[in-house]
């Protein structure tokens, strides 16, 4: 078996997802793989944006919508990955459903490993509605590492 060349890790800014980033970064450091840190976000509803701007004013309304939180998330994840020794780290922020976004990045970048945290696997909502790690594992065309990040 050859070492992984390109690793994709998903993060949503939660402590759990950052632990998955740490594990993926350590693996990338050990194997010399490229690490792609991905954060998916949902585009805001224009009506909700307008309502927020009405309440908060034009100067601060933009801060609660859009990709800004996702950009902050991947910036933090990039710093954590560097601390784990990952040398080749790229961050991506994409609009869309997390599993669809991760699958698309894996395909587009010819990745050979997808890393996600286990948050949601053991919750009632996760069992009824499905969870990102379970769905990602089910739909992935490459190896999936589900990192134990929460009990």
From TrEMBL:
<comment type="similarity">
    <text>Belongs to the universal stress protein A family.</text>
</comment>
<dbReference type="InterPro" id="IPR006016">
    <property type="entry name" value="UspA"/>
</dbReference>
<dbReference type="Pfam" id="PF00582">
    <property type="entry name" value="Usp"/>
</dbReference>
<feature type="domain" description="UspA">
    <location>
        <begin position="4"/>
        <end position="148"/>
    </location>
</feature>
<dbReference type="InterPro" id="IPR014729">
    <property type="entry name" value="Rossmann-like_a/b/a_fold"/>
</dbReference>
<dbReference type="InterPro" id="IPR006015">
    <property type="entry name" value="Universal_stress_UspA"/>
</dbReference>
<protein>
    <submittedName>
        <fullName>Universal stress protein UspA</fullName>
    </submittedName>
</protein>
